Amino acid sequence: xxxxxxxxxxxxxxxxxxxxxxxxxxxxxxxxxxxxxxxxxxxxxxxxxxxxxxxxxxxxxxxxxxxxxxxxxxxxxxxxxxxxxxxxxxxxxxxxxxxxxxxxxxxxxxxxxxxxxxxxxxxxxxxxxxxxxxxxxxxxxxxxxxxxxxxxxxxxxxxxxxxxxxxxxxxxxxxxxxxxxxxxxxxxxxxxxxxxxxxxxxxxxxxxxxxxxxxxxxxxxxxxxxxxxxxxxxxxxxxxxxxxxxxxxxxxxxxxxxxxxxxx
Length: 264
Hints:
The protein is an alpha+beta fold. It is built from 5 helices and 13 strands.
């Protein structure tokens, strides 16, 4: 295992480590790359390697810039299609295949997204630890997110209790590890089974696993912070009923002092 941004995780597939830099180093802000393919019709390019997260699992795609010599050009969208990660560019003329360039992430946005993603994993871990209830769905944007659980009922008071527990786990400064686990091992890991790793296509082997040590372990392809302490603090802003046996918890990530975060 490794922690995000310090070392390439054990058993990380070589081609993934070379091409999907976000999967092995969540703290990489800038990178050099070469244009692999150009789609002029849609105004996008694919790179031989990238640190831009393409979106997935409820986590939004990264924003930032690409620069091939005439100044930084905004990346307005990133998406994985047919095995490639495409970068949409706000520019009248795209770089040609083979062009070398530099990518720079919008780090403030990425880091806030990382904090939010980790906060949602903490919420998931707290609900499982205290109530043995699995998560059934979720989504996020930088600074805010929600998870759904099959509770029969959920009160505002229950939301305050959850908020207290989340912030206790943040204060505990639990280490966060990244590992790649073979499917035969994952199939026997009940922590992964309860988060529906068995629903992930069998051809994805090994699975990328995020482990908040002592609290939560999930198959996950997104980006996370190094420790729960880095999240700052969390407010449960609302609990909702979305129907029988489906209750929603909405959270907001804030600075440790309790205010909504600004740029890091």
